[in-house]
Specification:
- The chain is an alpha/beta fold and 184 residues long.
- Helices cover 37% and strands 26% of the residues.
- It has helices spanning 15-28, 75-81, 114-120, 127-138, 144-154, 163-179, and strands at residues 2-10, 32-39, 47-55, 67-72, 85-94, 108-112.
- Strands 2-3-1-4-5-6 form a six-stranded mixed sheet, sandwiched between helices.
Amino acid sequence: MTEEIIIAGFGGQGVLTMGQILCYSGVIENKEVSWMPSYGPEMRGGTANCMVIISDTPISSPILTLFDTVIALNQPSLDKFEKSVKPGGLLIYEASTILKPPARTDIEIVPIEAANEATKLENKKVMNMIILGAFLRKKPVIELENVMEGLKKVLPERYHDLIPLNKKAMERGMELAENAEVNS
């Protein structure tokens, strides 16, 4: 099993954190992992993305141009990376902020209104965890219990009181992905 992913959005949306959580979780499961961040000098509010590879075998290169999964958290990221999903791949996007939805017909497309759901959970910062949960429902490459352990490694200790909320957000994302109107 090898899963090649790009996660993209604005700085401050938790793009890099999602990638780190997946990688730490992969290490816990004794998988090979690669995490390659890319962000502009403006950080918060600027564009950010990270390439993540999770594999049962050694990873030859962390640099990719096509992905099994694209996770887009904003319109510029969707516009830029929609064409980078391999045919038959998966595109998950944050639907509540997208004005021009993806148009491809050769991939599975899963819209998730994560920003709206995060507001319902009374913490907008868990939007990325809702999306991560949706991804894990569609592509269960890591066990949820190990994702929670990965979260503990990434989240500063002073925020560990938010771990139950993050788990609830991931579980909500899984529910949304299960019930999403999927285009494929």
